[in-house]
Amino acid sequence: MIETKHLTKSFDDHIVLNDISTIFEDGKTNLIIGQSGSGKTVLMKNLVGLFEPTSGQILYDGRDFVAMSKSEKIHMRREMGMIFQSAALFDSLTVLENVMFPLDMFSSMNLRERTKRAMDCLDRVNLIGAEEKYPGEISGGMQKRVAIARAIALNPKYLFCDEPNSGLDPKTSLVIDELLHGITHEFKMTTIINTHDMNSVMGIGENIIFIYEGHKEWQGVSADIMGSTNKRLTDFIFASDLLKEMRAAVTTGH
């Protein structure tokens, strides 16, 4: 479990995050949503230590990340997996070598053990047969799956995903969502996903935090959204005419 208590982040005199207290739950897909500029990316960067909060606490299973020393934070980050918006694979390395990279850097396994672990992760994301290919030789959706395999190679307790469906078609996005949801439950990770994808919100949103102008405006599950009376949330979620029609149909029973 990750918990923030009164988390605030300012840049000079500009408050970007304002007194955010929330819980990201174990074994669930926790989604952070909000308009561009709302502060959700800054929130994630605070959670992983790329930014230092102005005030407040970030607790990893009760451990105060903000108060840790530099060496303690480095050790803590070994419990984290990260999936970047662009996949961020190494073009000069094969798919297998990309997945093995964190194992080569941080594990005490021998080569045979590292290779087996990497192949197991590739099997989990249905990429057996692509291990000798290079990133430029595979599709964007496959690259994201390689990124997921690499992120889980060290069996992290916490998984952070920054817009994992960015640039993907709806069908491929659904595959990525199902993978993230599946591995979250399988490994009982605390998974946090920054997303604009409303299909993800409605499909795998087990704990949703809506950020509005730097503060937590709403928190709940996807099933609560259709009946929500929070206007800022509904204006954000049901921005398209199609979604408005879907919501109207649900609320009126037609």
Helix content: 40-55%
- Percent range for β-strand residues: 15-25%
- Low-pLDDT regions: none
Strand order of the largest sheet: 6-7-8-3-9-10
Give the biggest sheet. 6 strands, mixed
**What's the mean pLDDT score?**
91
What structural class do helix, strand and pairing data support? alpha/beta
Amino-to-carboxy terminus distance: 39 Å
Structural shape: globular
Tally of helical segments: 10
How many beta-strand segments? Answer: 10
- Report the radius of gyration as a whole number of Å: 19 Å
Order of helices and strands: EEEHEEHEHHHEHEHEEHHH
How does the SSE layout of this entry go?
Blueprint: E1 2-11, E2 14-24, E3 28-33, H1 40-47, E4 55-60, E5 63-64, H2 70-77, E6 80-83, H3 95-106, H4 111-124, H5 140-151, E7 158-162, H6 170-187, E8 190-194, H7 198-204, E9 207-212, E10 215-220, H8 222-225, H9 231-237, H10 241-252
Parallel strand pairs: 3-8, 3-9, 6-7, 7-8
Antiparallel strand pairs: 1-2, 1-4, 4-5, 9-10
